[in-house]
């Protein structure tokens, strides 16, 4: 037992509010459920009972996973951790008086707060098309649009804007999904990006492999010019080219939720919460942040792998902050493994400049993603194998 606990036994419980059920927060919930802390009164604010795992999104879209197999039972985790659950989004925060506001207008007071609310596409919000994030809204919208597309005439044209890992995997996933959805209607997929090559942050071999695979499957990358303007049914590129599309999917660089700008928290140029090595806000020491919404001292891309690795450190530091212990530093890896699905039972692995491809890589990715989701669902008492119904 930690030495500092005896000094806080007589104090009122510290009110810890978790905002969002992202990849780091599900680990916080699991850790607090596994080792309960009487000195902490826990609250979780999240819009849905189940939270999607981003790594499984392409597999879900392609039809390899059910909704319950790509989502984590946040409600069950909250119950196991003894947390009060508020099923709504946060829309405001006053860190000077320690008060969170939800979309229903409810105000929640806290002593300690942690943000793990993800990010939004740099473009897409307020423009024609479907932003990939937040994932829960994306999946609902895609299902509706594809259902409507069955009744259309002529070839169906889908434009995926963004040539990073998310855009490339989604293009492959749609290629697998569309034949089943469109009932014989012809279709075309375009992958659009301003970089001169796809996957500009991955190894040259992976870029060559996946460019070749895209073209062999009939997906021609439209690269080297940014989207200047988006209108209903078309995109206008900076080089003057116009692209007509029935549906536009935005999978581009991230931006922070706009309501953070009104909080007074220290934010970086992109609106993300600036944190120290312990994942604590630079301006308000009783506020923590993890995942996409956090701006690390040593910046990293907005990738789920970092949120997953932050989880254990965040859980330890929130417990320590509540009870008076010392904080530990999060040390993000300088290189990280990317497992990129091509939607056909194969995948590409990329790390340290090494690129490997095959069905065995997909089996590795599939095992890894299923294991992550099922670990939390089993702990929450909600096995994906027993819970196959429902949408995200």
UniProtKB/TrEMBL annotation:
InterPro entries: FAD/NAD-bd_sf, FAD/NAD-binding_dom, NADH-Q_oxidoreductase, Pyridine_nucleo_diS_OxRdtase_N. It comes from Fulvimarina endophytica. Keywords: FAD, Flavoprotein, Oxidoreductase. Residues 15-311 form the FAD/NAD(P)-binding domain. Transmembrane segments: none annotated. Its cofactor is FAD. GO terms for biological process: aerobic electron transport chain. This is FAD/NAD(P)-binding domain-containing protein. One of its GO terms (molecular function) is NAD(P)H dehydrogenase (quinone) activity. Pfam families: Pyr_redox_2. The keyword Transmembrane helix does not apply. The keyword Disulfide bond does not apply.
């Amino acid at each position: 037992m930690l030495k500092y606990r005896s000094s806080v036994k007589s104090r009122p419980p510290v009110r810890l509010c978790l905002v969002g059920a992202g990849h780091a927060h599900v680990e916080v919930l699991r850790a607090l459920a596994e080792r309960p802390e009487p000195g902490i009164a826990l609250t979780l604010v999240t819009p849905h009972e189940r939270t999607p795992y981003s790594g499984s999104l392409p597999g879900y879209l392609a039809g390899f996973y059910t909704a319950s197999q790509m989502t984590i039972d946040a409600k069950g985790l909250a119950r196991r951790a003894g947390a009060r659950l508020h099923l709504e989004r946060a829309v405001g925060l006053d860190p000077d008086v320690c008060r969170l506001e939800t979309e229903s207008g409810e105000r929640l007071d806290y002593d300690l707060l942690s943000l793990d609310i993800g990010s939004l596409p740099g473009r897409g919000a307020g423009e024609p098309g479907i932003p990939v994030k937040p994932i829960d809204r994306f999946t609902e919208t895609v299902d509706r649009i594809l259902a409507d597309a069955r009744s259309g005439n002529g070839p169906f044209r889908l434009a995926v804007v963004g040539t990073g890992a998310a855009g490339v995997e989604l293009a492959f996933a749609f290629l697998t999904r569309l034949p089943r959805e469109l009932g014989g209607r012809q279709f075309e997929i375009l992958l659009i990006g301003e970089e001169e090559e796809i996957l500009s942050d991955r190894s040259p071999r992976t870029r060559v492999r996946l460019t070749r695979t895209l073209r062999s499957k009939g997906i021609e990358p439209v690269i080297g010019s940014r989207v200047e303007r988006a209108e209903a049914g078309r995109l206008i590129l900076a080089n003057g080219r116009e692209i007509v599309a029935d549906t536009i999917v935005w999978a581009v660089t991230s931006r922070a939720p706009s309501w953070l700008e009104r909080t007074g928290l220290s934010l970086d140029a992109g609106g993300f919460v600036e944190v120290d090595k312990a994942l604590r806000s630079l301006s308000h020491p009783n506020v923590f942040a993890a995942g996409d919404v956090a701006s690390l001292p040593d910046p990293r891309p907005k990738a789920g792998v970092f949120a997953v690795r932050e989880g254990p450190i965040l859980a330890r530091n929130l417990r320590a902050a509540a009870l008076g212990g010392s904080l530990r530093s999060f040390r993000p890896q300088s290189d990280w493994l990317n497992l990129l699905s091509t939607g056909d039972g194969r995948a590409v692995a990329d790390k340290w400049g090494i690129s490997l491809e095959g069905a065995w890589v997909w089996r590795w990715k599939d095992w890894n993603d299923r294991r992550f989701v099922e670990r939390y669902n089993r702990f929450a008492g909600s096995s994906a194998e027993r819970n196959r119904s429902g949408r995200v």
